[in-house]
Amino acid sequence: METVEFVKEYFYFEILDKYGGPVLAVSAVLLFLAESYRRLRKLKSSRWKRIKRNLSIAFTAVMALRLSLIPALVYLALFAEDNNFGVFQWVQLPSWLVFVLGFVLLDYGNYLWHLLNHKINFLWRFHNVHHIDLDLDVTTALRFHFGEILLSIFFRGFMILLIGPPYWLVLTYEVIFETATLFHHSNWRIPYKIEKLISRIIVTPRMHGVHHSIVHRETNSNYSIIFNIWDRIHQSLRLNIPQDEINIGVPSYRDPGEQNIKNLLLMPFKKPRPWLLPDGKVPDRQYKGAKGNLEP
Ligand SMILES: [Zn+2]
C-alpha cells in the first residue's frame, strides 16, 4: 500500500479532520481574541513567553492525541462493535438515544479520568505540568504533557470497551470535548449574569479558574469537562471565590524562570514538591458565600 493510501485508510477520520479541525482552530482564535479584549483575571507572568512555551508543549500533546489516542479510541470502538463489547452492543437503542446517552457517559468517564489524575500520585506527576502554569488562558487548554495523553489511552480505552459507543460518537464527542476544554480554560470575561446562567449546566471559565487555584481544596474541585453535573453529584463543586482573589498555579512552582520546555517535559520524572509556598506557608482562604454560588 502507498504511504498516502495507508494514512488515508488508517489515520484520516472525516468527522475530526474535515469538520473538527476547522471548528477547533476557529474556536481557539475566537477565544484568544475574546480573552485579549475582555480579560477575566489579571496576568501574572509574561504573556508572549507563556504562549510560546505553552504552544511548544501543546505541539507534543496534539501529536500524541492525533496519532495515538484518537486512532486507539476509534479502533477500540470498532473492535467493540465487531466483538459485541459494551452496553450499547447489548441493548439496541435508536441512534439519537445512543448519541445522547453515549455522549453523557463519555463525559462522565472523562470526569473520572480527571479525578484520578489528581488522586493518584503517578498520574499527578504528568497532570502537574498543566497545573503549574502561572496564568490560565486558551493556551493552557493545550499545554499537557504528552505522557498524560498516552496514559489516558488505557482509561479512556477501557471506558470505550465498557460503553461500546459507535466510532462516529467517539469522534464527535472528542471535537466537542476539545472545544469545551478551550472554552473553560480561556481567560474571557463573559458577562457575569450570562455565565451564571450557563454555569448551571456546563463548565465555564470562572468555574474552571477555581480548579487552577493554588489553594489545594480548590484545585481538588470542579473536575468536569463539558457538563458540570458530575461535580454536583460527587459534591466536588466549588464556585464561591471571586476571580480576582484566585492565584493560578501550584504553590511550590512559582518561579516563571524554571518553567522552560525542557523542565516541563522532564517534570513527571522528578518527585513533586509538597503543596507549600516558597515561604513554607500553606495557601488557604476564608469563604463567604455558599459553596455552589458563582462569584464574579
Ligand atoms: Zn486538573
DSSP summary: helix tally: 13
Radius of gyration: 19 Å
Overall 3D form: globular
The overall average pLDDT, rounded, is 94
Q: Uncertain spans, ≥5 residues at pLDDT below 50? A: none
| Whole-number tally of structural domains | 1
Query: What share of the residues does DSSP label as strand, in percent?
Result: under 5%
* Biggest sheet descriptor: none
Protein name: Sterol desaturase family protein
Enzyme class: oxidoreductase
Keywords: Membrane, Oxidoreductase, Transmembrane, Transmembrane helix
Domain Fatty acid hydroxylase: 99-235
What does this molecule look like?
This protein is mostly helical. It has one domain (13-269). It is 59% helix and 0% strand. It has helices at 3-11, 14-37, 47-82, 87-90, 95-119, 121-131, 146-163, 167-185, 192-198, 205-211, 216-219, 229-233, 261-266. Helix 3 packs parallel to helix 7 (146-163). The termini are far apart. The mean pLDDT is 94. Bound molecules: zinc ion (ZN). The site of zinc ion (ZN) has 5 residues, from helix 5 and helix 6. Zinc ion (ZN) is lined by residues 114, 118, 127, 131, 211. This is Sterol desaturase family protein. Keywords: Membrane, Oxidoreductase, Transmembrane, Transmembrane helix. Its EC number is 1.-.-.-. Its main location: membrane. GO terms for molecular function: oxidoreductase activity.
